Amino acid sequence: MKFDSLKYSFMEALKSIKRNKTLSIASIATVTATLFILGAITLGVANVDKAITKLGSMVEVTIYLKDNISDNNKNAIENKIKTVEDVNTITFKSKEEALKDLREQLNDKSGELTSGFEKANPFPASFTVNVKEPLVVDKVVSSIKDMEGIEDIKDARSLITKISKLTDSVKIVAAVAFVVFIMISLFLIGNTIKITVFTRKKEIGIMKYVGATDWFIRWPFIIEGIILGIVGACISVVILSLIYAIIVSKFSAETLFGFSLLDISYIWKVIVWEFLGCGIFIGAIGSIISMRKFLKV
Asked: How does pLDDT run across 11-24, given as a tens digit for each residue?
């Protein structure tokens, strides 16, 4: 497209937006709402993923040993764990250390609450294994589950699995909601273009009569839809940034398990480009669909 043709199409698009202010504003508002919801869900999912990754690095496997376990069996279990890749640390806790930890937790310095436990210590010795990611837990458990001297094995895989399933559910709901709002945006932008087409029907006929090509006639409407989409995208980014900045400021300190929210720069580095792309797509497709059905050229 030549510069003069592009300039003409752009100016015609601006005039059309000005003539149909109400529908243009409605189209922009719908695009803004659509992308804001998408951005809010994207941020939520990204923060949950970050939390799962953080929790994953803190996942531990606790292997409780039988009281009558031999030193050979205990050493065999430890050596077997060491052969598993991506194991961070292996910590052994004796029965005496387990009792000591309980007294510290209960603040039982005098030993009144745990009197008599020295002779009949009910707490088992154990290995605590810290892994790099939750998937490694399966490898550790499967490698030692049939070895002699193990009383029980505990881990937090069920919690990680539940959180992961919740995240997947949120992603599905987000996808459905986004599709619904996309359809609404396309409908409104399409209606805006339809009205513009009908108000310029005679002008378009004259342009065809003097030899204007189909695409020369179509481009102003496509650019109009793209402008509406981009404006809606820009507004949604600003609103999302302001609201998220408030949320981040309220939770600026690290929260549970040392987890902190994603920095607001994530919006300007990642989400802003997604918004602009979606805005252009919604505007252009809405215009093209409308013209294919109603614009006879």
From this structure: 877 887 787 788 78
In the chain, which segments carry CATH 3.30.70.3040? Answer: 60-155
- pLDDT tens digit string along 107-126? 766 555 556 566 677 888 89
User: What's the predicted TM-score (pTM) here?
Assistant: 0.62
- Write a three-state SS string for the chain: CCHHHHHHHHHHHHHHHHHCHHHHHHHHHHHHHHHHHHHHHHHHHHHHHHHHHHHHCCCEEEEEECCCCCHHHHHHHHHHHHCCCCEEEEEEECHHHHHHHHHHHHCCCCCCCCCCCCCCCCCCCEEEEEECCCHHHHHHHHHHCCCCCEEEEEECHHHHHHHHHHHHHHHHHHHHHHHHHHHHHHHHHHHHHHHHHHHCHHHHHHHHHCCCCHHHHHHHHHHHHHHHHHHHHHHHHHHHHHHHHHHHHHCCCCCHHHCCCCCCHHHHHHHHHHHHHHHHHHHHHHHHHHHHHHCCC
Q: What is the CATH number of domain 60-155?
A: 3.30.70.3040
